Amino acid sequence: MNGVATDAVVVRGWRWAIVAVAVAALAACGLSDEAEIRQWMVDQRKTIHPVMQKVAEPMPFTPYSYDPHGRVDPFNPQKMLMTMTQQDRIRGVASGLRPDLSRRREPLEAYALDQIRMVGMMREGKDNVALLEANGTVHLVHVGNYIGQNFGRVIRISETEVDLRELYQDAAGEWEERPQKLELQMASVQGS
User: Fold this and answer.
1) Residue ranges per domain, the chain?
2) The listed CATH number (3.40.50.11030, 2.30.30.830, 1.10.2020.10, 3.40.50.970) that belongs to domain 107-183
3) Is the dihedral of CA 7, 8, 12, 18 positive or negative?
4) Using CA atoms, how far apart are residues 109 and 115, in angstroms rounded to an integer?
5) How far is CA 128 from the centre of its chain?
6) What is the Cα–Cα distance from 97 to 99, expressed in whole angstroms?
7) What's the whole-number mean pLDDT along residues 95-105?
8) Distance CA 30, CA 19 (A)
9) Residue 162 buriedness (CB in 10 A; 0-12 / 13-18 / 19+)
10) What would the DSSP string read from start to end of 131-172?
11) 114-141 pLDDT, tens digit each
12) Percentage of residues in the chain having pLDDT higher than 70
């Protein structure tokens, strides 16, 4: 039993000795590597010289003297106002499209087109009448009625769709027309 305990102590001693030698070896390597690196840096600094490019002299600034005598003042507010008025007149004549803002708004103009569904169509004499549902309420719509929030006017009603023309302003502020349609939405059949 005594021999087993002695062997264990010897093995532990050897382990500690190996760890101590490894640590000492690593410490010695670390110091010499650092010195080598520092010496290499010093050598590199001696051999490498920075390249400096010459910066060109700035060009001299000569201010321009504006003589308004006999010339049109480019900052005259009256001239700018006349130009803007002329452009507005040209735009008004060119497009000719404008919504009638003085007319009474119709109930379906309170809803966006994506909130309005076509749920049916019926005939009144020779005319087709669309059944449009918005917010749970069904409305009868004839050709000429307005729907949607972009001044959409109904131009045709068929058995499966409602065609309309919307007015919208483009980036320049001019009124443009675009076609839109609402298609018949089939009711989903619910099983009991």
Assistant:
1) 1-47, 107-183
2) 2.30.30.830
3) positive
4) 11
5) 42
6) 7
7) 83
8) 16
9) buried
10) EEEETTEEEEE-TT-EETTTTEEEEEE-SSEEEEEEEEE-TT
11) 999 999 999 999 999 999 999 999 999 9
12) 80
Q: How far apart are CA 47 and CA 12, in angstroms?
A: 53
- Tokens of residue 17, six digits: 């000795």
List the helix and strand counts (H, then E) for the chain: 2, 7
The pLDDT of residue 33 is above 80: no
CB neighbour list of residue 116: distance below 8 Å, 6 or more residues apart = 108, 132, 133, 134, 147, 148, 182
Residues 73 and 106: beta-carbon distance below 8 Å: no
pTM of the model: 0.50
Residues in the chain: 192
